[in-house]
Structure formats: structure tokens, C-alpha cells
TrEMBL record:
Similarity comment: family membership: Belongs to the DnaA family.
Encoding gene (name): dnaA
Protein name, as recorded: Chromosomal replication initiator protein DnaA
Native organism: Kaistia terrae
Domain spans labelled AAA+ ATPase: 170-293
Positions bound to ATP: 181, 183-185
Amino acid sequence: MSGRADAVLWERVKTRLRTELGEDIFSSWFARVEFEGADGASVNLSVPTRFLKSWIQSHYFDKLLGLWTAEVDSVRRVELIVRGAVRARPAVKVEKPVVAAVAASPAPTFIPASSAAPVMAQASAARLDSAGSPVDPRFTFETFCEGGANRVAYAAARAVAETPAGRPTPYNPLYLHAGVGRGKTHLLHAVAQAARRADPSRKVVYLTAEHFMFRFVAALKNQSAIAFKENLRDIDLLLIDDLQFLQGKSVQQEFCHMLNALIDGARQVVVAADRPAAELETLDERVRSRLRGGVAFEISSPDLDLRRDILKSRYAIAQSQNPGVDVPETVIEYVAQSVVSNGRDLEGALNRLVAQWQFTNQPVTMNSAEITLRDLVGATEPRRVKIEDIQKVVSRHYNVSKADLLSSRRTRTIVRPRQIAMYLSKTLTPRSLPEIGRRFGGRDHTTVLHAVRKVEEMMQGDQHLAEEIELLKRMIDE
Ligand SMILES: Nc1ncnc2c1ncn2[C@@H]1O[C@H](COP(=O)(O)OP(=O)(O)OP(=O)(O)O)[C@@H](O)[C@H]1O
């Protein structure tokens, strides 16, 4: 195996994982796995956290290896590496200074959420308190830029932080949802820190869903589950981040008990996730229903004013850390106009420009900025495709009615478009097989799986069909 061929194989393995595990599980555990290379019998993949590594190793390792071996006979091992360890290598490629510089940008320093010590701008090392995940001291309300996209979420978060213990806000649980990089984590960390500052005796715990799972599974293993549960139920303010990663029946049940106990006991809960609760399909219905009983606010993508504000406040910080740094206002405006996706990309864009200045010791010009930011400019979040859109486009294209697609009729002229529509629903939406089955006239999930496999198989032997499906995808995307 080598070069491009490896990457193609990895795409195929991912497609199979997606089909076999369902979009939700795939995006929870594999969306952040990256292919690092292959070396004879060994395939190297990287993941962003140690937790993800151990979870994949214990739950999906055999499947991963099996799928690789099915592609390449000689593969005997799949190595999972934690990305920080891979990327932090000092291998600075001269032709790509920007990437190296971004990797070299300072890592956040952390303080524990429930530490009684005042929040300091520069905590020296990452520490973990007994119940929570680390909180980044830079993520405060003061460094969060407010705008139309996040105004309501911001106000609700502030209200939570300022409301004394024992008197939860009317938003309980408060559910914040948004696509990547729009500031959910920043807001949760800001709440944790402000609440601590307002009342150091208040028990505030910030936990990522991954960390909750990890702690719960570890507590079960060493038989300290009861202490773990009691510790969590004694909290005044609980902040749960990245709820979409909460997996596993017993973990979800425990989470649900905790949620009920806290809310019924007049404690405040705040939850953040990348989509509305109703769309978290792998989440236990009882948890979803409890979340629906609270108040949900969405953070939408930043408008131009907010993008400008985020960039300006980040640049002010960069100036204080890098005396003499020179990114002209026109370039900042260019970034605000053209990097439209989210706060993380804006921050990444600015980091690159600052790194470019550090590497070249030259003021950043419009031309050089355009080259440096080529891949970020104009990037938007993919539009969410709905099953109805797919059904509409497929029925129009094959001249069958939507009722036919959903019916039990088995004539060839209907079966084929129906299978294609199911295949497209599986590959273009995050819907699970049972959900797709329900949306296609109440079919069983195995029927959907059969359709997906059948279409994949037909596409391999029929170039014409493969092109037709590509065309349908484009039509659905329009
Ligand atoms: N309104 C904002 N003001 C200031 N910084 C922001 C804002 N929105 C996002 N950011 C910055 O963008 C980066 C990404 O934000 P954050 O990690 O909070 O996003 P997220 O919504 O939790 O994304 P993900 O779901 O990918 O974890 C952070 O560095 C954050 O400080």
C-alpha cells in the first residue's frame, strides 16, 4: 500500500464503518479519526484524545482490524495514536510553515472547575478536580463576544452563573446546541468560572460526556459506582458538554438518574450538544424527554459584526503576547468577510497569520493572507439534508410518486428508486437504519441495510449507476 491508494482504502473502511454502525455511532467515535499512514502490516490512525483511543480500542478494535484486513490481506495491526503526540513532532516543513506554526501555537492551560482558588489567567499545569473535567481559564464571559447569533444563549448562560445555589433559573435544564466551533464549550467554561467566583462554596462541576462515561465505567470496574453517583448528586451546578458523545445503555441510564435527581432537587443543569436533543438518536428517550422539559437555545453561525468582534478581541490578545505583530486592519477585515464558518476557524485563521508573521518577520499582506487562508476562505458548514428532500428528488428523477416509494409495491421500477433513496438517506443524513426504515413506510432496519449494501454493490459494477447517484446527490444538495 502507498500514498493515495492508502487514503482511498481508508475512505472505503470509513464508508463500511458508517454503514455497519450507523451515522450516529460513526460520527460519535470515528469522525475525528484520521489516517496517518500505513507501513507494511501496520496501519496508523490518530485520534484527538486518549479517551477516544481507549474507547475505540475496547469497543471497535476487532471491527476496525477486520475491515482493514478485508481491504488488504496483509494488514495485521491497527495502531491508534493520540494526535497531540503525532503532530507535536518538530518536523517543520519549509514549504508549509503555516501548518507547523499552528501546531506550535500555545496549548491552553487548565484549572479545575471547582477549585476554590480564584481564576488565574495563567494556571501552570493541567489538573483535574475529583469530579470534573478541566476548564480553560481563557474561556470566560469577558473573552466571549456577544452578537445576534448567540445573544439569547449568552444571556441564559450569564443568568445561570449569577443565580445563587438552590434557586435554579427557569431554564432548567438549559440546553445549548450549535454546530462545531460556535462557542458552546467557551460558554460552559465561562459559566463554571463565573459561578465559582460569585460563590466559592457552590459546588460547580463541568464534565464532558466522554469524561462522564469514562469515570462511570472506571467506577463500575473498581466497584466505586455508589460513591461516584453520590458525588455527582451533591452538585449545585452541573455543566455537561458534548452530549452527543454519550453512548451505552447503562451509562445513559445513570446519566438520566443523575439528571432527574439534580433537577428534582432544585439544582441547575446546563447541557451542550452539536444538535437539538430530538436529533440525538442514540440517546435514551427518557434523557431526551427530560431535556425537552427544559429550555433549548441554538447558537447560530456568526454574522459579519460578530466575526469582526471575535477577530478584534483575539488580535488584541495576540498583540499583547507578540509585541510588534503586524496584521493590518484591512487583512483582519478580509478574514471577517471571508472566513464565515465559526469562531474556531476565525481563531485558526488569525493564529496562522500571526505565525506567518513570526516565521517571515514581514508584515502580513493581503496577498500572503489569501494564500495562507486558502482552505478556510468560503468554507461553510454542510447543509443538513432531510429525508423528505431525498424522497422528493428521487421520485421526481425516476418518475415515481412519493407514495410509491413508501408503499409495499415490489415492481422493479419502484424497488430500485426506493433502494437508491434509502441508500442516499443513509449516506447523506445522520439518520439511523431504524429511523430510515420508519420514514420509508415503516420498514425494518434490515431492509434498509439490505438496500444500502445492494446499491453499493451495484455501483461497483455499474459506472452508469454510480454517475447517476452522484448526479442525484448534487441535485439534493442544491
Ligand atoms: N462568540 C465567541 N466569542 C469569542 N470566542 C469564540 C466565540 N465563539 C467561538 N469562539 C472561539 O472559538 C473556539 C471554538 O469554540 P468552542 O470550543 O467553544 O466551540 P464549540 O461550539 O464547543 O465547538 P465543538 O462542538 O467543536 O467543541 C474557541 O477558541 C472559542 O473561544
